[in-house]
Design goal:
This protein has 376 residues and is an alpha/beta fold. The chain folds into three domains: 3-126, Rossmann fold, CATH 3.40.50.2300; 150-301, Hypothetical protein af1432; 302-376, Molybdopterin biosynthesis moea protein, domain 2, CATH 3.90.105. It has 16 helices and ten strands. It has helices at residues 11-21, 33-43, 60-70, 85-95, 107-149, 151-171, 177-184, 195-203, 209-216, 218-226, 233-240, 252-268, 273-282, 289-300, 342-351, 367-373; strands at residues 3-8, 26-31, 48-52, 75-80, 99-102, 305-310, 320-321, 325-327, 331-334, 361-366. The strands form three sheets. A five-stranded parallel β-sheet has the order 2-1-3-4-5, with helices on both faces. This is Response regulator. Pfam families: HD_5, Response_reg.
């Protein structure tokens, strides 16, 4: 049964709601707004919440406004015996009220409002799940395509995702999804870029003017590729500005991404964390000072991995490549920094049947897995 919550300061009214509606809904009640907020946080999610307008301590408008913050998908119904025009307007504007009912409310009217509220809740959650499923599928296809088209770019994006995750924890960023997606797709514009150009960027070799132009275009191309995908507009903005110098006008995610990219580039060339931070701090005006401070804290913390050089038959899901996986002829199959998963391990096993692969290969093994792997 669909869950509904009734909030009122009078117990006998709550008991009446429960007795009359318990065969149709999973009814919860809360005596007073504070109890209602606690119920939303601990017993939810609810399809619909019904609140009285006049309650001591916090009126129904303020309660439903708070309820919206806690559970935005839950539909909100206001029930009152004396609603003026101003109260009605405030309820709609502040609490985003779905229905406004007056007491005494006939049971058929209340039941119809509850059923409409439940339908609205189902519609909202179904649409979100559909979008999330589509989004997950789209991200998977794009990253797998990048891995096949340009393994170096894919490996770079994997390393950046991990680095951005560490930075987010230090900065206590509450919502990291958009930033993580931007990191994963930061090099999606490199899909058609010749791999040797990105290899030169990674090693610090000088680019020709044509190569520099092609490489500098990848943020714009990547942003264009994803900007019209539902819910990825903000991600596209971050990707487009990933090479920009510090400005409070660009998204915070782009400032984080810019620093992570430059840190990774220096680390990939063999510099130590202290050397990297010295170089980065010397680039005046390039980075957000607060994010640079967070990077210093993140770089000084343990990364939670041990390094081992192993044969490919010991590869396990969750290990991170410490070097490129190379086939004879210097063909890069998987780039350094790639986190191994079942699909990539299987792909390497299939390729090894036809091509000789250089072994052993250095990998980073999560400390939690190192004991069980038998590689310590």
């Amino acid at each position: 049964m669909d869950k509904v919550l009734f909030v009122d300061d009078e117990r006998h009214i709550l008991d009446a709601f429960r007795n009359n509606l318990r065969k149709r809904f999973a009814v919860s009640t809360a005596q007073g707004p504070e109890a209602g907020l606690q119920a939303l946080e601990t017993e939810g999610p609810f399809a619909t919440v019904v609140s009285d307008l006049k309650m001591p301590g916090m009126d129904g408008v303020a309660f439903l406004s708070r309820a919206r913050e806690i559970s935005p998908d839950t539909t909100r119904i206001m029930l009152t015996g004396h609603a003026g025009v101003e109260a009605s307007i405030n309820a709609v504007n502040q609490g985003q009220v779905f229905r406004f009912l007056t007491k005494p409310c006939p049971m058929p009217d209340l039941l119809a409002a509850l059923e409409a509220g439940v339908r609205q809740y189902r519609l909202i959650t179904a649409e979100r799940e559909l979008l999330h499923g589509t989004l997950r599928g789209t991200i998977k296809v794009l990253t797998e395509a990048l891995g096949l088209a340009n393994p170096v770019a894919f490996g770079k994006s994997q390393r950046i995702k991990a680095l951005v995750g560490s930075l987010s924890k230090v900065m206590t960023i509450k919502s990291t999804l958009e930033l993580e997606l931007a990191a994963m797709l930061s090099h999606i514009g490199c899909m058609g870029l010749p791999q040797n150009i990105l290899e030169k960027v990674e090693t610090g070799d000088k680019l020709t003017s044509q190569e520099f132009y092609l490489y500098s275009e990848h943020p714009r191309l990547g942003a264009m590729l994803i900007q019209h995908i539902p819910r990825l507009g903000g991600v596209a903005e971050i990707i487009a500005a990933q090479q920009n110098d510090y400005s409070p006008k660009i998204p915070q995610g782009a400032r984080v991404l810019r620093l992570a990219l430059d840190y990774d580039a220096l680390k990939n060339r063999g510099s130590s964390p202290n050397e990297i931070l010295f170089v980065l701090r010397g680039r005046k005006g390039a980075y957000d000072p607060d994010i640079l401070d967070a990077m210093e804290k993140a770089a000084c913390s343990s990364d939670g991995y041990i390094t081992r050089c192993i044969s490919m038959r010991h590869f396990k899901k969750g290990m991170v490549l410490g070097q490129h996986v190379m086939a004879v002829g210097n063909i890069i199959l998987l780039a350094s920094g790639t986190e191994l998963n079942d699909a990539s391990i299987l792909r390497l096993q299939e390729v090894s049947k036809s091509f000789s692969i250089h072994e052993p290969i250095c990998v980073l093994i999560p400390l939690d897995d190192s004991q069980g792997s038998g590689l310590l």
